[in-house]
Design brief:
By secondary structure, the protein is of the alpha/beta class. The protein has three helices and nine strands. The strands form two sheets. Strands 4-3-2-5-6-7 form a six-stranded mixed β-sheet, with helices on both faces. It has a three-stranded antiparallel β-sheet with strand order 1-9-8. Bound molecules: guanosine-5'-monophosphate (5GP).
Length: about 180
């Protein structure tokens, strides 16, 4: 018996599809960063932790791993553009190549904020990897150099993405079967 309600969730992207795409992204990053110097993968907590763990192991190079904590919605469920940093990096990124790793770029406001903030820290370069992109909800255009999947406008869960703090440990990307948003 699975821990979640199978009747209320549809599989949008299954575990095999995710694994295949993550392997491709890892190979692209390996090719792009070979012989370029220190590479840091920065995971945006909490949603990126599963993707980051798989992506890091698909990169065939020595990498540093670090994490940032952000809270983009506060108590409201709509992205306001006001991003709060809840945890900063553990080490400086000056002179290093950085890939920001996100679970999903939705309005783009969180990523825009992070890119602006990181630019002031003088990394050697900064790129973005996101498992998912929801272009229908985009408010600002942010570059996504390594993108897993473009998806329609639906609230998705699993593979790191939560609903009310739960469902992050689903091995696939699922979508609520009920119409509309769950909030
Ligand atoms: P943005 O600032 O791009 O609107 O928001 C990005 C963040 O919103 C993501 O990192 C994620 O935490 C949350 N988010 C956006 N869309 C979804 C979704 O469909 N499902 C879940 N669980 N979180 C989402």
């Amino acid at each position: 018996m699975p821990f979640y309600d199978e009747k209320s969730l549809d599989v949008m992207i299954d575990a095999d599809q995710i694994a295949a795409r993550v392997a491709e992204l890892g190979a692209e990053i390996t090719d792009a960063y070979r012989d370029r110097g220190e590479l840091v993968l920065v995971g945006v907590l909490k949603g990126s932790f599963v993707f980051l763990a798989d992506l890091a192991r698909a990169v065939d190079l020595p990498v540093d791993i670090d994490f940032l904590g952000v809270s983009s919605y506060g108590d409201a469920e709509e992205s306001s553009g006001v991003v709060r940093l809840t945890r900063d990096l553990s080490r400086p990124i000056e002179g290093k190549h950085v890939i920001l790793v996100e679970d999903i770029v939705d309005t783009g406001l969180t990523m825009q904020y992070l890119l602006d903030m990181f630019a002031t820290r003088k990394p050697a370069s900064i790129e973005v990897a996101s498992l998912l992109h929801k272009p229908a909800r985009s408010k600002v255009d942010v570059p996504i150099h390594y993108l897993g999947f473009t998806i329609e406008d639906a609230f998705v869960v699993g593979y790191g993405l939560d609903m009310g703090g739960k469902l992050r440990n689903l091995p696939f990307i699922g979508v609520n079967r009920a119409e509309g948003r769950p909030w």
